[in-house]
Amino acid sequence: QITDMKVRYKSGVLKYKQMGYWVPDYEVKDTDILAAFRITPQDGVDPEEAAAAVAGESSTATWTVVWTDRLTDCENYRAKAYRVDPIPGSDNQYMAYIAYDLDLFEEGSIANLTASIIGNVFGFKPLKALRLEDMRIPTAYLKTFQGPATGIIAERERLNCYGRPLLGATMKPKLGLSGRNYGRVVYEALKGGLDFTKDDENINSQPFMHWRDRYLYCMEGVNKAMAETGEIKGTYLNVTAATMEDMYERAEFAKQLGSVIIMIDLVIGYTAIQSMAKWARRNDMILHLHRAGHSTYTRQKSHGVSFRVIAKWMRMAGVDHIHAGTVVGKLEGDPNVIRGIYDTCREVNVPQKLEHGILFDQPWAGLKKMMPVASGGIHAGQMHQLLTYLGDDVVLQFGGGTIGHPGGIQAGAVANRVALECMVKARNEGIDIWNEGPDVLVKAAKWCQPLRA
Ligand code: CAP
Ligand code: MG
Question: Less packed terminus of the chain by CB within 10 Å, N or C?
């Protein structure tokens, strides 16, 4: 008679614990994939039962015992919830730790990994909310992925740029410019001193500017600025499109024009990202990932997926750049959370650090580092804060903060480059830039009109 799952749970009809998905004395194996989920059980649901349900539904189980379990090595294949801790200060939230046997997953496939881990469980009725906070990817599984093809060290070598963050700008307005005007902005910004310019997430091939026009005029701007400045420069050509065939065609054309980098948006999906990473590796192109769409599932604190986990998957998938937040700026970003994301991008090994949301040790087994990208409402006046929070291995991207300069685009780029270089110099001389940074900028602005403006 009882048909609603919530009611069934309260009445104790369903028992994932009894089905073997709660194993508190389980000894984690080095090869296990581990996941930490923040669970909010429905009122009256036992947290251990809820954790067991997450383990069950994200591995082998369904809502009832099935006869065919007897035909498999189900004890091994069942995921095991092995620990549940109440989260201090929360409203009935718990951290549930779950171990998955390596054999449950196909080699080198983020799509396969995520189909289990974030597959059905997030809509499960016995839970009010569920958030994937962290994962430990064991070396055995990491080694089935190639990771970033270029990484931070090789990118700096190609650019011949060391000891400071890279500087970029996103084209604005995001949509509406013609190819020729767009190319002019690229040229002005690079000539003024930026290393990169960049397409925005939502520019692909629209009636006002088809993609081939954009690529042609952008690369003309890049080449002209390189010739005039003697510096290596680039522009991230967004190859995001409706089909893989279209994306490959756009990437090939970018390569023919001599571009060193292409860009994709997170919304293309994990398999498409891995395909483009494979293409970039074969063609010696840097791959820039814009995380368009991520906040739909990363922003809420009790439901969804932590962006740090997405960053981990993207390092495995093999992108070279990833948007990672700014702390300051127009978009949400808690300093501790951002540190955890940056560590995930660019450390050789990431040790457990609870205050940064890092719940497991994560050795990276030789997978290259990703260059994090800071973007979103930032400008030269925050240079001391950006350097302090984010360090040197980062791309600082000022869209409005370049193209909105009162003296024009080139002046905006000059202001950013001067602000960056004087701040790096001050820091290297031992000046406390966190406190003295504004004075450093004011001093530099005395002889740099664009910065003063
Ligand atoms: C920034 C931006 C970026 C966001 C992405 C924009 O422009 O181009 O897409 O920063 O956010 O469209 O808002 P401004 P995140 O520099 O003019 O603000 O890096 O956090 O993914
Ligand atoms: Mg944008």
Answer: N
Taking only the tens place, the pLDDT of each residue in 82-91 is: 999 999 999 9
Task: Classify residue 380 by its DSSP letter.
Answer: G
- Which residue has 């000046």 as its token pair? 431
Asked whether residue 170 is marked as a ligand-binding residue, the answer is: yes
- pLDDT score at 188: 98
User: Cα(8)–Cα(264) distance, rounded to whole angstroms?
Assistant: 45
CA distance 180 to 184: 6
Instruction: Choose one of 170, 197, 386 to mutate for the ligand 1 pocket test, by most ligand atoms within 8 angstroms of C-beta.
Output: 170
For 366, residues 6+ apart whose C-beta sits below 8 A from its C-beta are none
Alpha helix ranges (H) inside 90-138: 110-117
State the closest ligand 1 atom to the C-alpha of 323, by its place in the atom list counted from 1.
19
Could you tell me the domains of the chain? Answer: 18-142 (3.30.70.150), 151-452 (3.20.20.110)
- Which stretches in the chain have pLDDT values below 50? 1-2
Task: Report d(CA 164, CA 156) in Å as an integer.
Answer: 10
425 marked among binding-site residues: no
Cis peptide bond upstream of 173, omega within 30: yes
Q: What are phi and psi of 133, to 5 degrees?
A: -95, -35
**Protein residue with least CA distance to atom 4, ligand 1:** 376
- 184 among annotated binding-site residues: no
Q: What is the pLDDT of residue 393?
A: 98
* Confidence (pLDDT) at 2: 43
DSSP run (H or E) holding 401: helix 400-403
What digits encode the pLDDT tens for the residues 284-293?
Answer: 999 999 999 9
Using CA atoms, how far apart are residues 52 and 38, in angstroms rounded to an integer? 13
Sign of CA dihedral 272, 130, 142, 162: positive
CA atoms within 13 A on the CB side of 296: 5
**Residue 79, pLDDT score:** 97
pLDDT at position 347: 95
* Residue whose CA is at the smallest distance from ligand 1 atom 13: 376
User: Which residues neighbour ligand 2 (ion) by CB within 5 Å?
Assistant: 200-201
Nearest ligand to residue 169 Cα: 1
DSSP structure class, residue 285: -
pLDDT at 65: 82
